[in-house]
Amino acid sequence: MFRGFYTASSGMIAQQRRTEMLSNNISNANTPGFKADQSTVRSFPDMLMSAVQKKGNASLENGFNPSSIQTIGGLNTGVYLQETLPNFMQGSIVETSNNTDLALLNGDLPTNAETGEQASVFFTVQAEDGGQAYTRNGNFTLDGEGFLTTPNGNYVLDDENARIQLQNDDFKVTKNGDIIVENQRVARIGIAYSETPYELAKKNNGLFFTPNNTNLPNAYTVPNISFSTEQGYTEGSNVDSAQTMTDMMTAYRAFEANQKVLQAYDRSMEKAVNEIGRV
After folding, report:
1. Cβ contacts of residue 118 below 8 Å, gap of 6+?
2. Closest CA to 86 of 31, 146, 34, 157
3. What are the residue boundaries of the Flagellar hook protein FlgE/F/G-like D1 domain, all occurrences included (predicted)?
4. Rounded CA gap, 258 and 8, in Å?
5. Which of 154, 147, 221 is nearest to 187 (CA)?
6. What is the widest separation between alpha-carbon atoms in the chain?
7. CA-CA distance, 243 to 76, in Å (whole number)?
8. What is this structure's pTM?
9. Which of 193, 24, 172 is nearest to 123 (CA)?
10. CA-CA distance, 84 to 120, in Å (whole number)?
11. Does 2 have pLDDT greater than 80?
């Protein structure tokens, strides 16, 4: 009976974590460049239960008699939230008319034949430790020294991994990422390419990192791909609010169902202790 407690409680924990993930998606439905998380729920490995009894003289030196094994059956030990992966589908493009805002548009990017996941491109920014981080949030601004930064203060890097410093916001960005000031090319927005974006680690503030902190390749040098930048626009979140709310209700109902099972087990144990124990 106690196994039922563990099975129901594991279901509650999995649905609680799924609800938290979906709540985070909903809260970032209007965050530029946000990529919605997706969860994978799977069961713990099944166990095959058998009863071993000693009957007569053992046929083996260690006392184990194969003929005395009685199969009881399989036992599932519950479920757990295996992992969460971002959905890198491109969000809607929103016009802001702000010169420092940039949207990154996927063009012709390859798709993995086995997983069905499409490759992706990212703006390259400087992480707090001085390394590289990657984002799709092009809601940039100029700081007090004229450096192009993310909303959280990360420096935007050019295609040579240097910070981009400008005199003011009177500049143009071409579709191929060139920054033009007074008809002169002064820098090029750093764009990184990831063939397997689902392997990137997602952290706070919409930043992505490689698992081993190595730099992604420069997207401008990767052959047979296409992408473009659009000035005065940002990429919106790819959260489907209606579907996410439906998924949240489903997760909540599943949590409630496991809760009812747990309460039923609790009442059964109460009777076993308080009533059957008197007999």
Report:
1. 88, 106, 109, 110, 111, 112
2. 34
3. 122-180
4. 5
5. 147
6. 98
7. 30
8. 0.78
9. 193
10. 18
11. no
Query: Considering only CA atoms, which of 242, 219, 247, 238 is closest in space to residue 89?
Result: 238
The domain locations on the chain are: 2-84+240-278, 91-235
| Residues 213, 210: Cα–Cα separation, whole Å | 5
Alpha-carbon distance values, 94 to 121, 179, 238, 248 (Å): 18, 21, 12, 27
Tokens at residue 213, please?
């902190």
Query: Burial, 25: exposed, middle or buried (Cβ in 10 Å; 0-12, 13-18, 19+)?
Result: buried
Dihedral of alpha carbons 265, 268, 272, 273, sign:
positive
DSSP, residue by residue, 44-79: PPPEEEEEE---SS-SSTTS--GGGEEEEEEE---E
CB atoms within 10 A of CB 204: 6
Tell me the per-residue pLDDT of 13-54, one tens digit each, with 9 for 90 and over: 888 889 999 999 999 999 999 999 988 776 666 666 666 665
Q: What does the DSSP 8-state code read for residue 90?
A: -
The H or E element that residue 249 is part of is helix 241-274
